[in-house]
Structure formats: C-alpha cells, structure tokens
User: Which sequence fits this backbone?
C-alpha cells in the first residue's frame, strides 16, 4: 500500500492511500477534523459531503485525478516518467508537489501503519533535461462573443 499526505498550503488535510487491488481511500487527519468550520480549509464538495468519514472507491478518486494534466500533456509527461497514463496514483506521487491551487501530495506513512510509501522511480528533479512546472489542466484559448 502507498500513501500520500494531502495538504492545502501548509495545512495537512488528510491521507490518500492506494491498496494493491487499486482501491483508493482518503481519510481526514485528526487536526483537520477538529478545526473549527470557519478556520478549516476546504478541498471540494465531495469532501464536505462525506466529512468526517473516509472516502473509499474501487479506483482513483476523481477529484485527485482531475488535478493531473490532460490530453497530450498527460501522455507526454507519463511517457517521460515511464508511468502508465492511467496510473493516477503514481502520477500524483510524481507530480504532487506541483499541482493546481495550493494542493500538494507527498509520500507519507500509511494511516493503517502497515507500510511506508516507497519511491523507486526517478523524480522529475532527477530529469535534468526537462523542467516540469504546473500547467493548468484543460486550459485553452477562448473567444468571447455576443
């Protein structure tokens, strides 16, 4: 099992875990749950609807998958990193420090305490030839008309 710490800015919100059967679970961290509603940062409506219960699904949690690049940029970065473009968890692990907004995902200890996330692949910092920086998924030229 692998785990990623989910932060908004400097505040840890929870932990995203992926199990061997590709199921994913997001669990809120205790400090985030205990924070007053007025001082608590919000990730998105899916989290508010299920707060404070963990979110478990049989594949990737779409909210996190939507933080990744799309289309040609996803194919290019996946190929360069040697990751299957459908493996959202591995991509989040590789690109998690450079996502849209103030959201970051970094490897951490699993909430269940079974295993520690292991990072064997080259990181984007190791790839001296290419410099990766945030690119907003879905951005395209628009034409305003009346």
Assistant:
């Amino acid at each position: 099992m692998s785990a990623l710490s989910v932060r908004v800015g400097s505040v840890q919100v929870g932990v995203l875990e992926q199990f061997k059967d590709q199921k994913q679970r997001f669990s809120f961290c205790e400090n985030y749950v205990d924070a007053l509603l007025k001082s608590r940062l919000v990730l998105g409506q899916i989290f508010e609807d299920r707060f404070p219960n963990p979110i478990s699904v049989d594949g990737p949690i779409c909210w996190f998958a939507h933080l990744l690049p799309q289309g040609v940029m996803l194919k290019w970065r996946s190929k360069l990193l040697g990751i299957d473009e459908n493996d959202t968890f591995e991509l989040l692990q590789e690109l998690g420090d450079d996502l849209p907004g103030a959201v970051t995902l970094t490897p951490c200890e699993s909430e269940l305490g079974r295993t520690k996330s292991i990072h064997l692949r080259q990181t984007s910092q190791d790839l001296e030839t290419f410099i990766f920086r945030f690119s907003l998924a879905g951005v395209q030229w628009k034409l305003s008309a009346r």
